[in-house]
Amino acid sequence: MTAHVLRLSLGEWQKIRRRWMPWILLGIIVLVTQGILWGFYAAYHVSDDPFGALTATYEFRDSEGTIVVTCEDMVEGRGEEKFGIIADKFTGEEREAVQADVAEWMANCQDYLTPDEARGVFTLPYSVDAVVSGSFLALFVIPVLILAASALGMEYGWGTLRATLARGVGRWQLLSGKLIMLMASAVGLVIVVAVLTGISSILAGVVPPSEEGSFIASDGSAWLDAVKGMAKLVFVLAPYAALGVFLAVLTQSSAQGIALSLGYYVLELILAPILSGITDWLEKVVNVALLGQNAGEWLSASYQTEAQQALGQVVDQPDTLRAFFVVLAYTVALVAAALWVFQRRDVAGAKGE
Amino acid sequence: MTTDMVIQTEGLTKRFGNITAVDNLSMEVRRGRIYGLLGPNGSGKTTTMGMLLGVLRPTAGSFRLFGSSNRHEESLRRVGAIIESPAFYPYMSGRKNLEYFRFISGRGSSDDVDDLLEKVGLADRGGDLFRTYSLGMKQRLGIGYALLGDPEIVCLDEPTNGLDPEGMIQVRELIRSLGDGNRTVLLSSHLLHEVEQVCDSVTIISKGRLVVQGDVAELVRSARGEQVRVRTTDDTHAREILSGLEWVGDVGTAQDGALLVAAPVERSGELTAALSHSEVYVTEMAPVQTSLEEYFLDVTGSEEGSAE
Question: What ipTM did this prediction achieve?
Answer without folding.
Answer: 0.80
